Amino acid sequence: MSKLKKIGHWLDDRTGFSDTILPLLKHPVPPDAKWSYVFGSATLFCFLLQVLTGIGLALLYQPSSETAYQSLQFITHKAVMGNVLRGIHYFGASGMILMAGVHMVRVYLTASYKYPREMSWISGVFLLLFTITMGFTGQLLRWDSNGVWSSIVAAEQLGRVPFIGTTLARLLIGGDTLGAQSLSRFFAYHVFIFPGLIFLFVGFHLQQVIRNGISEPPKPGRLVDPKTYRQWYSNMLEKVGRPFWPDAAWRDALFGSLVILVIVALAVIFGPPELTKPPDPSIIYTTPTPDWYLLSIFALFALMPPSIESYVIFIGPVLAIGALIALPLLSNKGERSPRRRPWSVVVVICVVVFMISLLIAGFQAPWSPEFKPRPLAAAMQVPEQPVLKKGMVLFSDKGCLYCHRMHGVGGIKGPDLSTIGRNWTAEQLRIQIVNGSEGMPAYGGMLTNDELHALVVFLDARQ
Ligand code: HEC
């Protein structure tokens, strides 16, 4: 026996590779599962690409509000291949979401979620949610005005959920306002928590594939019957099954590599998205645009009449996620072919058209005008005293309301000022407004003495 073979035998004996892993690779699959079955593995390819490039970025990225923006500038413009690395991570995210979407549509159209693969579908729903969350949290890490303002808007949307909204928003951004602590928190979400969850669920998702086998392509008239399906499936595999490796796996490998090639090519040709300006507290009329896969969600909320927004923000996602999870539980047998389930095709077309129109709406009319807070006068009793009234109007007109909450309206970038008069003296208020501070523009040159006086009196009266 040659030396090499000996080493091979030794390794195999100790690790048990040919006993445990090899049978998994060689497990039989239905023979006619062809090209439409490659999107799931392509999603996994994209995920692994994200992990690799993410590790590369994390070696240089500094998750602190002081240095995050500069460190990304360094990665983009100075680091060797840094530009391409960021580009791959960016287009990889888009690729992953796109592939996951197509995979889900394929599974839905061929009703592969039916018996016995219900848990594959349900774990897939969670994987989709985690993936979207990765996109959202990653965007804040750019720590440019786009990323920061998008997160502020999202936190505000969350804050409108009845009863628990404030708690949820606090949990999301790690406090009452979006600041340095939010960046640490999002970094932990993006680098530890959600990738960990994705690994866990991918493991489970794959274990399910091994346990139940991939679904055979549907044939009109061949019904799924939970009583007989497993028996039928294993008989079918015994007769016509092919080993996964290499008979089916080469398609996955080829398509996955192609997807990665396209991502790398896009990264080399177009590069990563330009970083917009660092978040500047004095620019309060920016129109942030989140990345495309989040844009349709944002656009949906922006186009909704504000009166129903609070309910839809709360009920909409609960209903949508609930419906997705319930799908395989409510309909787990019977016809699988899309030809006998024409409404499934209609559903897919409607959802795709809906998403694309929202996307177009999101690109054309930035949703941020809707982000304008309700006027303060709608939330509180208008004071009689002229100077107080003037202060109230100025509080809206000068943009304070964009960052500060008062009596339930306004932004969350700065602290809630509904009861500021309790702990702050008039003199302190004057100094804060004139000089501003780290997160707040200095209004010294922008206000007349009268206006300043009115604002201070107005705030001082917030008891
Ligand atoms: C761009 C956002 C922004 C705008 C606009 C803004 N502020 Fe602020 N403000 C902040 C932030 C952030 C803080 C918290 C202090 C800090 O951490 O720098 C703050 C703090 C304050 C405080 C002290 C409250 C405390 O508990 O710390 C007062 C008072 C205040 N702002 C009043 C105003 C008034 C009046 C206006 C309008 C003329 C205004 N702010 C406009 C962001 C803003």
CATH topology of the largest domain: Cytochrome Bc1 Complex, Chain C
**Main sheet: strands, sense, barrel:** 2 strands, antiparallel
* Envelope shape: elongated
Order of strands, widest sheet: 1-2
What's the gyration radius in Å?
27 Å
Q: What are the low-pLDDT stretches, counting only 5+ consecutive residues below 50?
A: 366-372
Which percent bin holds the helix content?
55-70%
Number of domains: 2
Mean pLDDT: 87
Q: Which class do the helix and strand fractions yield?
A: mainly alpha
State the distance separating the first and last CA atoms.
Answer: 89 Å
- Total strands: the figure is 4
Percentage beta strand: under 5%
The CATH architecture assignment of the largest domain turns out to be Up-down Bundle
CATH superfamily grouping of the largest domain: Cytochrome Bc1 Complex, Chain C
Q: Supply the CATH class of the largest domain.
A: Mainly Alpha
Bound molecules: heme C
Task: List its salient traits.
single chain; 463 residues; mainly alpha; Cytochrome Bc1 Complex, Chain C; Cytochrome Bc1 Complex, Chain D, domain 2; 2 domains; two-stranded antiparallel ribbon; 19 helices; 65% helix; 2% strand; elongated; binds heme C
